[in-house]
Amino acid sequence: GAGVSQSPSNKVTEKGKDVELRCDPISGHTALYWYRQSLGQGLEFLIYFQGNSAPDKSGLPSDRFSAERTGGSVSTLTIQRTQQEDSAVYLCASSQRRKDTQYFGPGTRLTVL
Amino acid sequence: DQQVKQNSPSLSVQEGRISILNCDYTNSMFDYFLWYKKYPAEGPTFLISISSIKDKNEDGRFTVFLNKSAKHLSLHIVPSQPGDSAVYFCAARPGGSGSYQLTFGKGTKLSVIP
């Protein structure tokens, strides 16, 4: 398919463990975004990548969160020493250019026990 | 502090009638507004948008109205269909060169009753 894909779809982990979430954007899209949606909340911006520019990390909630985007395509969001409050659905989106419509993946549901 | 508010967590409408979903915002720097639709276990899907230079945008059964003075927008779905049952998110972004961040409301769950 040509849409944004994310893996895994579900992840259950124990408190204190590290997790990696993957996003494959739509081919040719230069902008990539990570959001998270906690229970009963709207989507919360985490980080933004645009081409080869330095990412905008202003939405990352703590230094336990990091993300990288290799080769301007696939992105990985890493959460170190997970906490129960990290439990949420993590959504990735991509757009052709910075201000274009964002297309979302199905998300990864993270549960920290 | 919520900058985008959807005060109705849920809405039920009879099939064939009009659905009206409301959204209020507080940040006067917002100049572009979007509605996304989300089915369970799927990511949000872009539905319709409106720029602050307009007060109405229409796409088939979906119309978005913007009242800048009231900082209010609404999504009208006419006629409503059972397949419209989903969570609808209102989102906004500011103008300017750095304006890519979307701020989302908490969503309104629409149920269209056959």
Written overview of the protein:
The complex is a heterodimer of chains A (113) and B (114). With 113 residues, chain A is mainly beta. Chain A has no helices and ten strands. Helices cover 0% and strands 47% of the residues of chain A. In chain A, the strands form two sheets. In chain A, strands 2, 4, 5, 8, 9 and 10 form a six-stranded mixed β-sheet that branches. Chain A is globular. By secondary structure, chain B is mainly β. Chain B is built from no helices and eleven strands. The chains are: A mainly beta (113), B mainly beta (114). At the A-B interface, β4, β5 and β9 of A face β5, β9 and β10 of B.
How would you summarize the topology of this molecule?
The complex is a heterodimer of chains A (113) and B (114).
Chain A: E1 5-7, E2 10-13, E3 19-24, E4 31-37, E5 43-50, E6 65-69, E7 75-79, E8 88-95, E9 103-104, E10 108-112
Parallel strand pairs in A: 2-10
Antiparallel strand pairs in A: 1-3, 3-7, 4-5, 4-8, 6-7, 8-9, 8-10
Chain B: E1 4-5, E2 10-14, E3 19-25, E4 30-38, E5 45-51, E6 56-59, E7 62-67, E8 72-77, E9 86-94, E10 103-104, E11 108-113
Parallel strand pairs in B: 2-11
Antiparallel strand pairs in B: 1-3, 3-8, 4-5, 4-9, 6-7, 7-8, 9-10, 9-11
